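Step 1: inspect the first sequence and its tokens.
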Amino acid sequence: MKIGAVTLAYQDEGIIQGTLKCLQPFVDSHIVVLSEKPYFGKGGEADRTEEIALDLGADVVKGNWSLDHFQRNLGNSLMSDMDWILTFDSDEMMTKEELVNLILFLDKTEHTAVAVNPEIYWKTTDYRLRPKPSYMPIIAMKPSVRFTHIRNIDAPTFAIYKGEMHHLSWCAPKDIYKKVTCYAHAPDFDGEEWYMKEYLTWQEDMTARLPDGEYKAIYEPLPKELYEHLGNSTDTN
């Protein structure tokens, strides 16, 4: 079974090596679709994302897109010779054990796409949100499947993989300021106010407030294996 991977990126030098390193032993090809400007807000100078991706054996395709589903579909179109495409973003990782189990799951499923309910981290890689946000991203698909808007797909049904995927969506080393002002989530937030009021001031005994609800942050650190993939990029922003 031939497996490819497509990862979206925009100024992700602090986090993308975790995704690239965890997938590296399991994929035949990895394409990083690198945006040269943000979806919203002002763009900054290019960082080392491209250099890191190339050093870790990925191919890089650069361009400008209005939202992420256009990037995803371009990446998928370049993977037409694969049996499955792993659609991990630059802040998503799995352990070796979970990736082995995922590939076994892909080999057996009759569906053309697979989703997961991820472990979502808050503020640092030590805290996970509870209850789990009701977010089930597609993480694997057949090359014929296409995204219709952000991470929605044109397949009528999909399978659910019940293993763990670790999503550093709301924690350093991801640049959370950039996430809420430049990425696809930007329209859900009131400029810098949420970042200053809810994110920077959060402490361990406080509620984590997101546009879709309020959560507790429980102490359950990222697996050591994945933490080591991130290298020295885990300082809190």
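Step 2: inspect the second sequence and its tokens, then contrast the two.
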Amino acid sequence: MGTQTVQTRRFSRQDYERLVAEGFFHPEERLELVDGELIMMTPQGSRHATAVCLAEGALRSLFGAGFSVRVQLPIALDPDSEPEPDLAVVTGSPRDYRDAHPQTAVLIVEVTDTALPYDRERKARLYAKAGIPEYWIVNLLEGCLEIYRHPAIVSSPGAAYQSHSVASSSDTISPLAAPERSLAVADLLP
């Protein structure tokens, strides 16, 4: 008896967008495309939803005209990835993305309470590979903000952030794209 090989089907962003447009997925199904794989996103608990709302308000006040804060919307990072981060701050206005999703962001924020290793490892690699200059994780488990900056291509795991720090609820932070402004980390935590 021979061994059986498990086969997987990888998707390009173009394949994925076509399936979405054709209504292939159930409207309530929360999916994102990461490195050619369809990832089922976990349902949001109330703490997660509250933190997303708080972060949205804080980022909208922090970034003014010339920036748009997108909440749980696609970002077309590369031919095989179209994640839907909790928040992405992009340049321009919402109408600039009427015909196509943005391909980059000045800041991406993920709120996590159940997927911390995934956000720290796979998502950080994905965003670093795409050259996203700054990535924050609102860590609900530890009540802090993890800050990743300065993406670089490295031999292993392929891409990584060169700077990583942790800010507590009593700290303030200034994003790279708006260094003259700051927000209290506590404003991001439920």
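Step 3: confirm your contrast with the notes below.
Residues 172 and 184 are 4 Å apart (CA to CA). The chain has one domain: 44-188.
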